[in-house]
Specification:
Number of strands: 7
Structural class: alpha/beta
Largest sheet: 5 strands, mixed
Shape: globular
Number of helices: 24
Helix content: 40-55%
Oligomer: single chain
Radius of gyration: 26 Å
């Protein structure tokens, strides 16, 4: 059962108790940082919570602060997370509200604590014993995400009179016991369930035993990324700075920002990887190598010349490098997928990526069911909800059978939840932008996809989504170059990039580029609009025999579309000028009613 976010007074009361606690009593910096983060977020200034602003407002840094060389904010945020975990596991175990700083950003999140003492419930929350049920906007997966567990508060013992120290200690004791029992139950359940996503081997939560078995990552874990700089010079400094900035923006990984501990047993880090920056073969060259911490295997080795590391171009080269390694389609996820150590979230994201590379009802359902189980199991990942929203939108648009009765409105609920869970998550804003475009809200779609791109300009997938959004809002001259650059820079891109590039080039009058882009659609599953693009591309390139074959295939496989392609384009909210041009070209090829 979902609950609404805790009310502001409850959050403030929890904050004051937390700041006055013994746990935080020895760290003035942590207290100052936590108060600043919570107060700014509560004031509606979450967008301001960036590293530079925090460094200046909290730690007295000046305008020359450089996060790539001064790690004070990241270090203190990591320390703050540790103290919060310690507080809520001990002193604050019965707090009605839990405060957390999710990794990958500095915006606080809040949730009601499932374990609450009946006697403290009212006093701790200002006579709010229980928050009302969440609104439809925050509810996960509307009709089909049934959580396997209940989050009803656990009654521990009868209310005791205030001021009785012994009773208070007993309450904490019993609360701790409940936690231990619950954790043991989770371990037992996970050992009996091979993989939450279904069909794959999951990593367990067992720690290393007497036989020396390495600890396995928990189901919500993501690849852990380190960076080690072993090269000097301005070129290496620019590469390191750009690499740090890029890695910090990806939500498909957890970025550490330092070298791995050399004294640690490397086998204990099965999903950990390190980017090594070392001198290249020639003067001024810089080599970037991506290596598995556990096995030492090199997944990527890229040498950058001094020209490629020059100011103004190094960012583009690092973006290409990161897009080929960090997303679910990249080298890291591919390497993990070939092993038996992947977590449930990693496995589901791989399945999700497979759908967008081969878009059909079967791959969509497999990916959706996997992510759906993670949501039902209580995932804290905004990324899961973002991808679930996109897949739900695909089901509604393409009329896939699963989930039953899929609608764009239900997909929007999931996307809003993703943004609520991760206000700085690029995938969440991209999903919300995509769904707005499907609903015909062009301006809002552009705003959101631009936000996703700004949150991580090093992810060519975000650039592609922004360019695609511009194109399907009728801004062909703006969107086509952005999408075209992404297509050229990343050869392993999904087919929807090629379709967007076809449309953009076609509307710009670049028929050669449009024909080339349409050719790339032949490797994917048959879709009416993809076949239509291939048919138009074949005619543009003078391949009349192929055009005839594609026309026959389109009529046979999609008779409804072939009879009235305009209805499909209108239903998909294409711009009017694009719809007219496509319909005209298809009629010239014998597709569609000429009336």
């Amino acid at each position: 059962m979902e609950h609404a976010p805790p009310a502001a007074p409850a959050v403030r009361e929890t904050l004051e108790r937390l700041l006055a606690s013994e746990t935080f009593g020895r760290s003035e910096r942590a207290r100052r940082l936590l108060r600043y983060l919570v107060e700014r977020e509560q004031a509606g200034e979450a967008d301001r919570l960036k590293g530079v602003s925090i460094a200046m407002d909290v730690f007295g840094k000046d305008g020359d602060f450089d996060a790539s060389t001064d790690a004070v904010v990241r270090v203190q945020a990591g320390r703050l997370r540790e103290l919060l975990d310690q507080y809520f596991a001990n002193e604050g175990i019965a707090e009605p509200v839990r405060i957390a700083i999710p990794r990958g950003g500095y915006v606080p999140s809040y949730e009601l604590n499932a374990i609450r003492l009946p006697g403290d419930a009212k006093s701790a929350t200002g006579n709010i014993a229980r928050q009302p049920q969440a609104s439809a906007e925050a509810a996960p997966a509307a009709d089909h995400l049934d959580s396997p567990t209940s989050d009803e508060p656990v009654p521990l013992m009868a209310p005791a009179a205030p001021g009785q120290s012994l009773t208070r200690q007993l309450r904490f004791f019993w609360a701790a016991m409940v936690l231990v029992i619950a954790m043991l139950g989770v371990l037992i359940l996970r050992q009996g369930d091979a993989f939450l996503g279904g069909g794959d081997t999951a990593a367990t939560t067992e720690t290393a035993g007497a036989a020396g078995t390495a600890a396995q990552p928990v189901f919500d874990s993501l690849p852990l990324i380190y960076i080690a700089v072993n090269a000097d010079g301005a070129e290496a400094a620019r590469v390191a700075s750009s690499l740090r900035a890029g890695l910090a923006g990806f939500d498909t990984i957890d970025f550490i920002g330092r070298a791995p501990d050399s004294t640690r047993d490397q086998s204990a880090d099965p999903i950990s990887f390190v980017f090594h920056i070392v001198p290249g073969p020639d003067a001024g060259d810089v080599t970037v190598e991506l290596q598995s911490v556990a096995t030492g295997r090199v997944l990527l080795s890229r040498n950058l010349t001094s020209a490629e590391t020059a100011p103004g171009v190094v960012e583009s080269n690092i973006a290409s490098l990161l897009t080929s390694t960090i997303p679910a389609s990249g080298a890291i996820y591919s390497y993990i997928d070939q092993s038996d150590i992947r977590t449930s979230q990693i496995g589901c994201l791989v399945l999700d990526d497979r759908y967008f590379l081969d878009m059909n009802a079967q791959t969509q359902e497999v990916a959706y069911r996997c992510l759906e189980k993670l949501a039902a199991a209580g995932t804290k990942s905004s990324l899961v909800y973002a991808e679930l929203a996109a897949l739900h939108g695909e089901a509604a648009t393409a009329h896939y059978p699963y989930p039953p009765d899929a609608t764009l409105e239900k997909a929007m609920l999931l996307a809003h939840r993703a943004v609520q869970m991760g206000p700085m998550n690029p995938h969440a804003h991209r999903a919300l932008g995509y769904l707005n475009s499907r609903l015909g809200n062009g301006d809002e779609a552009i705003r959101l996809t631009r936000k996703a791109y700004e949150l991580n300009p090093y992810d060519l997938g975000m650039a592609a989504a922004y360019g695609y959004g511009l194109i399907f809002a009728g801004k062909y001259d703006e969107g086509t170059p952005i999408l075209g650059h992404a297509v050229e820079a990343f050869s392993g891109h999904p087919t929807w990039w090629d379709y967007g590039l076809f449309v953009g080039a076609f509307m710009q009058g670049d028929m050669k580029k449009a024909a080339i882009a349409s050719e790339s659609l032949r490797t994917t599953a048959s879709k009416s609009h993809y076949l239509a693009a291939r048919l138009i591309g074949a005619r543009l390139s003078g391949r009349d025999k192929l055009a005839g074959e594609l026309a026959n295939e389109l009529i046979a496989e999609f008779p409804k579309f072939a009879a009235d392609p305009r209805a499909t384009f209108v239903d998909r909210k294409y711009p009017a000028d694009l719809t007219d041009r496509l319909v005209q070209s298809l009629r010239a090829a014998g597709i569609g009613n000429p009336s």
